[in-house]
Amino acid sequence: MTNIKPLGQRVLLKRVEPETTSEGGIILVESAQEKPQEAIVIALGLGAQNEDGSEFKFSVSVDDRVVLSKYGGTEIKISGEDHLIVTEGEILGVVA
After folding, report:
1. Rounded CA separation 30/17 (Å)
2. The CATH number of 10-18+26-94 is which of 3.30.10.20, 3.30.565.10, 1.10.357.10, 2.30.33.40?
């Protein structure tokens, strides 16, 4: 568990590690791998209020596997591991 709590409508994610071999069995070096677009939700912010005063409700939950754009969010290191903080709007979908 992490000791970082995102603020507002932000979500803390950990990218899913990319495959190290191609479909044809070729081992890919790190520089040839694409940035992963899937991540696991680690923590949610406290939310906020919508313009009409109602409470904002997150569409994702902790441990959901989500899809995001390749270059969205802010990358940070926690205990030597790469994580990402994004707004919920930067999450494109939940993997079923």
Report:
1. 11
2. 2.30.33.40
